[in-house]
Prior knowledge:
It is built from six helices and seven strands. With 203 residues, the protein is an alpha/beta fold. It has a seven-stranded mixed sheet with strand order 3-2-1-4-5-7-6, sandwiched between helices. Helix 4 links the parallel strand 2 and strand 3. The radius of gyration is 16 Å and the shape is globular. 33% of the residues are buried.
Amino acid sequence: MSPEELYTILHYHRQMSGKQPSHRSLGWVSESSQQKRFQLLCQLGDMNGCEIMDLGCGYGDFRAYLHQEYADTIYYGIDCMPSFLEIATRKYGELPNTYFYQGDFSSMPLAEVDYMICCGSFNYRRSEEDAYLPVISKMFRAARKGVGFNMLDASVFQQQGALQGHEVDRVMAHCHSLTSEVKLIQGYSKHDFTIFLYPSTNK
């Protein structure tokens, strides 16, 4: 991600944040819409006893939801925003097996874990149309058991400021180039879709 793109993201969140950090600071319309996506991502697989990496973790709120659903997990949250990570560490840093790291996940190497999650962080506008496809590939290579992510749907979401949608068919075609085990989930939200990827069973 270029310095210009990082600045655009930073400026976007500063505009959204207001006086107090909240779900709106991260671009979510409501707390319930954020929680709905967390609930869906937790259906990726049985995560008990697993290592989970959350790319673009924001305030680390997925950690709290994950801890409720699967208490026995090892969680790694990565975000490029130091201010987000300060809040995440303050809110959830005391939970067992919880670690937060600063970095640009689109360019940094990713350690191997059981499940890779990306909730909302593929929605930022990039100069290259398919900039997130190599990141999906990198996530898949690093995940032992599965990958789950969501994206804004370009067919219903028009580009707005720092946010952009993606063509479902284009993203699905890329995912099918990685594995035959791909699941598309729609209908839970007007504007976005979720994709699960698993290692192929017919290798």
